């Protein structure tokens, strides 16, 4: 059974993200405390999400994943940039990266100097990762636990 439930999926990525489009992420229930998602569920420099636009029922993300829930945030909730203590600027954004059996699959990436950090085996400084997570966490909603 395919993970995505969109009836007629295009074959190429859709690069346009409406700012209000929701992105969903499967999270282990143990990573949620007092309604907040822990750092463990927001890895850096990149992490996977599904575009709600192409996943009509986000609960389908939980098939074969007992012990998990679903968290969501809007594209506009992704901090556009975070500046490190030494003044370096790190940018963040979403990319639609469909995989077989899941056209909705996308990724949130970190960029520095025009490079996607996971492509070059680097990650932002710890304080940038922490600030990014803290800013995004304020916007995350739990859809299902």
Verbal overview:
By secondary structure, the chain is mainly beta. The chain has one domain (22-144). The protein has one helix at residues 126-137, and strands at residues 22-28, 32-33, 36-37, 46-51, 68-74, 81-83, 89-96, 105-112, 115-116, 141-144. Strands 1, 4, 5, 6, 7, 8, 9 and 10 form an 8-stranded antiparallel β-sheet that branches. Strands 2-3 form a two-stranded antiparallel ribbon. The protein is globular and about 45 Å long. The chain starts with 21 loop residues before the first strand and ends with a strand. Mean pLDDT is 89; it is low at 1-8.
What is the gist of this entry?
The chain has 145 residues and is mainly beta.
Question: What's the domain count?
Answer: 1
- Contiguous helical run count: 1
Major sheet characteristics = 8 strands, antiparallel
Roughly how much helix do the residues carry, as a percent range? under 10%
Strand content: 25-35%
Give me the secondary-structure category: mainly beta
Kindly report how far apart the N and C termini lie.
23 Å
The tally of beta strands, per DSSP, is 10
Mean pLDDT: 89
Q: Helix and strand string, N-terminal first?
A: EEEEEEEEEHE
From the spread of the alpha carbons, the general shape counts as: globular
Unreliable segments of 5+ consecutive residues: 1-8
Descriptive labels:
eight-stranded antiparallel beta sheet, single chain, 10 strands, 145 residues, two-stranded antiparallel ribbon, mainly beta, 1 helix
């Amino acid at each position: 059974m395919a993970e995505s439930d969109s009836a007629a999926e295009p074959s190429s990525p859709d690069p346009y993200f409406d700012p209000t489009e929701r992105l969903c992420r499967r999270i282990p229930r143990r990573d949620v405390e007092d309604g907040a998602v822990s750092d463990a569920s927001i890895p850096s420099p990149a992490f996977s999400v599904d575009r709600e636009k192409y996943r009509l029922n986000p609960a389908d993300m939980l098939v074969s994943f007992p012990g998990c829930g679903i968290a969501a945030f809007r594209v506009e909730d992704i901090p556009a940039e975070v500046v490190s203590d030494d003044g370096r600027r790190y940018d963040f954004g979403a990319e639609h990266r469909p995989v077989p059996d899941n056209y909705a699959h996308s990724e949130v990436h970190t960029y520095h100097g025009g490079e996607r950090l996971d492509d070059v085996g680097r990650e932002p400084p710890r304080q940038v990762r922490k600030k990014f997570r803290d800013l995004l966490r304020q916007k995350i909603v739990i859809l299902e636990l």
